[in-house]
Design goal:
heterodimer; A: 469 residues; mainly alpha; B: 552 residues; 21 helices; 76% helix; 0% strand
Amino acid sequence: MNYLFLLIPFLALVALNLFSRKRMGEIAYWTCLVVFGLQSISAVSAIFGYVGISGQELNKLLNFNLYFDPLSLILIAITGLIACTSLIVGHNTIKTEHERFNFKNLFLVSVLGINGLAMTRDLFSLYVFVEVTAIATFILIALYKDRDAFEGVLKYLILSVVASVLMLTGIAVFLLAVGSVTFPALRLAMTTSNGNNLLSIATLLFISGLFIKGGLVPFHGWVADSYTAAPAAVTVFLAGIVTKAAGLFTLMRFLTSVSGFSSPIRDILLLVGTLSIIVGALLALGQNDMKRMLAYSSISQMGYIVVALGSGTKVGLIAALFHFFNHAIFKSQLFVNTAAIEAEVGSREMEKMGGLAVKMPYTAVTSIIGSLSTAGLPPLSGFWSKILIVMALWLAGYFTYAAIAVMASILTLAYFLRWQRSVFFGRLNESLTNVKEAKFGLVAPAVFLAGLSVVVGLLFPFFLKVVVR
Amino acid sequence: MVAPINWLDFRLDHFSLFIFAAITGFTVLATLYSLVFMKGKENVWQFYSYVLLTFILASGAVLANNLILFLFFWEGLLLTLFGLIFIGRKEAYKTAIKAVVIVGISDLCLLFGIVLTAYLAGTFTLSNISLPLTTLSSIAFIFMIIGALAKAGSMPLHSWIPDAALDAPLPFMALLPAALDKLLGIYFLARITLEMFQLQPGHWLSVLLMTIGALTIVLAVMMALVQKDFKRLLAYHAISQAGYMILGIGTAVPVGIVGGLFHMINNALYKSCLFLAGGSVEKQAGTTDLAKLSGLGKKMPITFACFVIAAASISGVPPFNGFFSKELIYDGALASGWIFYAAAVLGSFFTAASFLKLGHAAFLPLDGARGKGEEIKEAPWPMLLPMIIIASLCILLGVNNALPLNNLIQPILGAKLEGHSFAGWPHSAFLVIMTLIVLVLAWFNHRYGVAKSGKVLGASDHIHHAPVLSGLYDKAEKRYFDPYDLGMSFTNLLAKILFWFDRAIDWVHEVFTVKLVQALTGTLRWAQSGNFSTYVIWALLGVVIVAYLGLR
């Protein structure tokens, strides 16, 4: 069944572009929605135990290995979900028919790439899928072809090239030293040849490349500009899934399947993670642009995931995965809220707003839920993942890092409170008296995702059981 | 297996019955008096509610046999105390708070003492407790007597009483500090010393109690001496007289204890009579400021007569009741140490002197020569009747002192007396002669004072302005010795320190942290140049760091 996750988006892409774009433009929205929705539903049902047919035969045919495990299924499920959200937002915010059609096509490619990297079992395929996703995303960011978009995408592109060079060099060294790039072969080589410098160098190069892709401090230069420059719908997907899948999911995969958690790697992860948490949060505190603030917040939250991985334990891995899932939900939702505000107010500058809670009640309430979930307040889902992260660090004996993770939550809360205070509460800004609640298409996804935050938070023990299994 | 505790345990033995009867009697008389006195005042309904509640709680405290139940009633009196002072004049709430703070803190000590006692005795039942005075039980003893002494109004826990005298409604003063509080405080003190702990003569706690009593007598009466207000003067006497009882009971010898208990009932009688007389004066003349009063004896003859009887009684003039109880206390004090006896006699001297001054200033001359105040008339009957009853009792208990001593007080001590009876004329001629000498001296002192200052109110000026005393008096008038004010200034200091401490903490997270975060954020924002070459360099430096850490 797993190959279908690649085949169906690909076939949809072909089908949409086979005939006149005008005709297809109208059905493209629904086609994509069905494709992404089905992907999410089937992955969720697979998580809950209905694994379908194996793709062994096709694997031989296509000559690359696809592999299913809870890790990939969770990524596929959440990708489908956020893709639907992003699609709905895009359908409601992108103005011209032409751009909308391009958006959907590129989106299919991007999702295809993520599905691929979720399931692949060798390092080179992983790299290829990362690049597939990245290239589709480059174009998506620059969809409107304005100056800011080009600036943003240029920075992303240049740093991605650096990342590509690092990753490719790493793969080349692996190929040189081991003679194969499949995960089991690499794992075997890593465990048997203890202290081989060549393998260490390859590992470090590959990890560095992934840090750039994931936008962690100090590899984060591109994040804020490209997030801010991208169209609202693209930012939802970019922040929620793309960078996380390309950077952190791959990191998780690489660490669990290839390199393992050796002591120097743990040190690197803890350092980079903590740096990201603090620098990201501090930068978020100083922003006036809502999207830019959320972008830095993203860096900070990525830091949490990396720190959790840095604990090197199973609890840490689960915590990282759970925070990955939560982050996709609440950060996408917050970007949807931002899109709603931008669509209605026409600005993203916090200082020009105030008192919007009266005018945009749904957006306000969902944004509060999202903010609190990010800051890790019980009983929202973000609380559970953060407490798991802290617990993982504590159990692994990293008391200082655990304390930093807890204290940084205060910073998280600080920048979100500042955002809430200046945008939704306080006195209504006089220029905003005519603002209305956003369109249904922008409110419904936010409500759905906020609801998910609450439900996952409340039913946490149930979800934990499923994931651990 | 622990026996279930009977929480609602009441006891009606001879002692509690006696106090209960006294409480009832005083409440009835004070209420009768209030019928006229409180007429037309604000908060009358509140006053009666509080009086009723006070009566219930006081009776409960006397009858309770379980220490926790006792504490419930005892602490309940704190509420009515607050309420009764609060409904006085406009600024009375400050005094009410003062009273509640002082009595409340001492009640807290009492609570601690009770818990410790119950822990040591293994029971809360009062009648089952009998502890020897070891180190730990001495602590319990001290904490419990703090509660009892504060209720009785002993120094240094007295300072709310003179303030309340001016602020609270007068029947309150006649009922609570003059009568009920003394009854309750001395009742509990007697229960502690006689029943719960075996206090022996010569024990250091006995000496401590006697010292407190002696100091209270002398210091309070010296304050009373220089007062220029009828009610305030009486209030200091209410404190001073408590000292006699504490001294008497503190001697721990039978004659002293009997004297102390007898003095308790005598004091309740004449002190409430004096307060009621003061109330009559206030009601009829409109003021209690002695400088504005004069010659009331002619206009208010019955009040005057009652006042004279009560004043003679408090000064220890034979054959009124105060004389006999004081003689018994002198007897006990002399047996324990001449210094205590000297203090008690000195107290008597000043008591007599101050009442000579008070009576002279307010009621004399009898010919009522002055023109003003012509319209002042005798108080109405409902106010006079309680005074007359109490004044008659003062005479009755004095002349026929066998009646209360044999029937009410001596049975309380029971076997301790070994068949002794203290009824009748004092057996020691020395004590009687000393008392008479002191009274005569007081008389001459008064004449000397009046002659020297040229006015009646100045009768105590030569003591007031004596070399060492005047400085002390000044300080006392400025409340340097008031434990409440001392405590409050300490509390204020503490509050100020805590306030600065709080500000400092506040500064750390309201100013310092914000500034720090702003500085950090500013630096980081400044570093985000927006230039991709910078970002590439950062990323490459990151790779170097990763490589360094990984290949170390």
